[in-house]
Amino acid sequence: MGKALLIHKNQIIAYLFIVPSLVIFSLFLIWPGIYTIYLSFLNWNLISPDKEFVGFGNYVALFQDPNTYKILINTFAYIVILLMLNCFLPYVLSFILEYVITKGKNFYKKVIFLPSIISLVVGSMLYVWILNPVSGPVAVLFKMLGISLPFWSNTNGLVIVVLSLITSWKVFGYNFIVLLAGVSNVPRGVIEAARLDNIPLHKIFFQIVLPMSSATGIYVFIMTIVQGLQYVFTPVSVITQGGPNYASSNLIYHSYQDAFVLYKTGQSAALSTMTLLLFVLLLFLEFKFVEKRVYYASK
Amino acid sequence: MMKAKSKMSGLLCLLIIGALIFALSGCASSNGSGANTASSGQKTVIEYWHVNAQTQGGQAVDELVKEFNAQSKDVKVVAKFNPDMYKGLMQNLQAEKAAGKTPALVQIGWAYLDYFSNNFSYLDPNEAIQKYDPTSKSFLKDNFLPNVLDLAKTSKGKQAGIPYSLSTPILYLNKDILKQAGLSQDGPKTWQDVQQFAKTIKDKTQKYGFYMQEPGDTWAQQALMLSNGAKIIDHGKAAFDSPEGVQAYQLYADMVLKDKSALHVPWDQGVTAFINGNVGMLYTTVAQMSNIEKGAKFNVSSIPSPPFVGKQPKVPAGGSFLAITAQTEAQQKAAWEFEKFLYGVKSMATWTEATGYVPPRKDVATAKDGLKDFVAKNPMINSALVQMGKAVPWTSFPGNSGLQAEQTMIDTRDKILGGQASVASALKDAQQQINQLQK
Amino acid sequence: MPVNKFINGRLFWHILLLLFSIMMLFPLLFAISNSFKSLSESYNNMLSLIPGNPTFSNYVTIFTTLPLFQIILNTFITATIVTLFKLATSYFAAYAFTFFKFRGEKLLYFLFVATIFVPFTVMMIPNYLIISKIGLLNNIYGVILPQLCDATGIFIITQTMKTIPKSLIEVSKLDNVGTLGILRDIVFPLTKPAIVSSGIMFFINSWNEYVWPTLILKDRINFTLPLVLQMFISSEGGTSFPLAMAISMVTMIIPLILYLFFQKYILNTFSQSGIK
């Protein structure tokens, strides 16, 4: 009896802790999400008096549009590049800073974190000027060396790389200090012993540091994927508007463009729903993996 | 443990400070709004939505609104700035309408003429005058050129609003570069000349000869085709895939791809490259005049948009019109009162000086309290003034997929300039796609 | 062999890191320097980081034409409230998810975390309708309300809490420490790094947020700083780059001061327990 009551009381406490989040989420995230799924079956622009139910028409149109596949591939390319730039690179850097270099650690830490304070709108404007392929400071420097810069914002492939670089200028610093915290928790003695044994740095990194800080690592890994695409949105919308011919668009930007530039609300909702499903699937796979790894690390 | 405790209290302090500021500001802002309603008394408060950044007419809007509010007995205008130009305003308007509200007066870009008139209810200015200001029945006829008024007519022939800011593309010249390349400083006479000039500049100075604006629309590219006698749209159907259209686009594509004498970058970068002296000729809107004048350190001048050999120049009018979206009679009446004030000669002059747009009213450019002095001081605006008679409406593709049609034009531009498709096939595909959409 | 030794040595890494630091810092210096240039100089003297004729006129312009102090205050209030609430709601939710068993726990957690993936474009219009119905348009609290909790925060803090041994909580309960006591004295110190790092992220993101406030705020007296920046960006008339940079400097100065001020504290927290 008493135990059952305790469990009951605990349940109430637990719900009390969750209620604030639940209310906000339901109103401002889950309800819009459901509304979006509803919209994805309509041919409507949100304000017109004619609202036409088209069933799966919007989804069919999506699959028939060759641009959808282009954008999917772009999205994947963004994810891979952002993972390199914003997860792997800061990981390596935090290892170097923690265990290879002894002096100047604080200085580098400050300098590298600094750009993450800045808004990406500002960052994008800055890079439009700095990387102006004809007259920007970088172009001027390269001209002295006899090299002329490509028109990166109109070059397939390259445009994704440069936009990712601009994004990572902002994101790098934050990921870096989080990773640094994780890496610095690896017992020093282990690494010093390995260095005394003349084990090469890359081996120390991959075989000791990486597994022992994997909880932080996985967290940054996931956040890079999730937030990366949302962050890239800003430089895309400031600099290329998804162009040239969708070469720099991704799932998030494209659904924005459909909804708020072309007012094809139904199509956009269908794309958003697909994106959501795709990510939830990834999340589901990730979940099992993450849970296991974290458990392993804390043992 | 002690250490942790003190940190804990530090955090608590912060929380308390935060909460205090929160509370204080809450008081402050509620005071503010209280004062607001008190001062406006029984005046009708209307919202005016505009897109003008502080550096591009925004300050003039503030001034005009202030002046109007000071002299009006029964109307108070609140101006709302919408970032990201006409696209941004349309987004906000869409949300506002979905919430069941609308501002009283809005500034709509030409490309949205059809979308706006199909999806929002507005008051025809002729009706507004008849209803609320019957004494100035001939206001529109007296003050506006018929071809200018027509710009704001929908594909169904209704007057959606009154043209407010007009811009046309003009050709800016870097005279120093022309001189260095041994070219006439009066600039090219035709588009064929432009191509030759650009090539000569590239060969003689290693600099770029030409840049045509590439924003999120194809306004300038449409001007190019129109000036070769091509039609963008004919009887409601896309018609740019004509020999004239292809020839015009081919010349432009050749400059970028074959001669490599023209720059192919986003708008901001292209203008910057012109201003710091790396490009000989710039084809962009007259609204850039003041930016270019203030920024350039070389001899800069401008000429009207050229035609192709043996053709007449034609320019699509850019800019915006003002439409009354107020729904109640009181709001509509107030909106008209304010709109009429904005179209006064003096207000028009203030507006033009701050923006570099061409005034839509006939007499402003020459009137003494109008722009006479301004034109004398800024001769580059003349290039746009003289070509106003050649202004035609900027193609607003009809129907609900009109915006998608414009996007197709942008994609086509990217494909051609990126060398992914030949001009002929790209234009053909685009025309087919657009006409398919409209079915 | 010598190459290998060089790579393992400190000098190599210092050179690399210095180059990297310059690359990270350059855009910032470029922004600072341009905020003191005239329009003409910003166009014509791009390479030099030291303005030829330094001018304060850009700063004067923005401070005289706009109620900038009110706007800074608005931004600060918005970011502070958003950050504190997000941390609180995340912390409580994470606590429930970690230390309680209740019906629907797994599903709710999954649902919460899945919301991270909802693109913000999906939320814009429905949220606008709600805010408009409640009458919070043109009000910073309308900007704040939908942002009071955050799935990322719940995710990070829950992941961290899971590393706390359950037995620790059980023991405290036997010692008659109440729920609040456990939250404050036992769980909080152990999750501090995660809280601090998500707090920084929340603050910076909220500080720089512009899409949502653009929709909600109308009067400039209610604006936040990123909207001021938008006021000086014009595609049609050309953006005044120096003015935009001056506003950017104003926008970034407060997060910068906060960071420098709390840096010791932040870094200490990290190194004391670290994110597990």
From TrEMBL, chain A:
Annotated ranges, domain ABC transmembrane type-1: 72-286
UniProtKB keywords: Cell membrane, Membrane, Transmembrane, Transmembrane helix, Transport
InterPro entries according to UniProt: ABC_transporter_permease, MetI-like, MetI-like_sf
SUPFAM superfamilies per the UniProt record, alphabetical: MetI-like
Membrane-spanning intervals of the chain: 12-34, 76-99, 111-130, 158-183, 204-226, 269-290
GO cellular component terms listed in the entry, alphabetical order: plasma membrane
Intracellular or extracellular location(s): Cell membrane
Record-level GO BP terms: transmembrane transport
Membrane protein topology class: Multi-pass membrane protein
Protein name: ABC transporter permease
Source organism (scientific name): Sporolactobacillus putidus
TrEMBL record, chain C:
Keyword Translocase: no
Subcellular location(s) of the protein: Cell membrane
A Gene Ontology cellular-component term: plasma membrane
GO process annotations (BP): transmembrane transport
Record keywords, A-Z: Cell membrane, Membrane, Transmembrane, Transmembrane helix, Transport
Family annotation (Gene3D superfamilies): MetI-like
Domain ABC transmembrane type-1 as annotated: residue spans: 72-262
Transmembrane segments: 12-36, 56-73, 79-100, 107-128, 140-161, 241-262
Alphabetical list of PROSITE patterns matching this protein: ABC_TM1 (PS50928)
Membrane-topology annotation of the record: Multi-pass membrane protein
Keyword Oxidoreductase (UniProt): no
One protein family per Pfam: BPD_transp_1
Main location: membrane
InterPro entries in the record: MetI-like, MetI-like_sf
Family: Belongs to the binding-protein-dependent transport system permease family.
Protein name as it appears in the record: ABC transporter permease
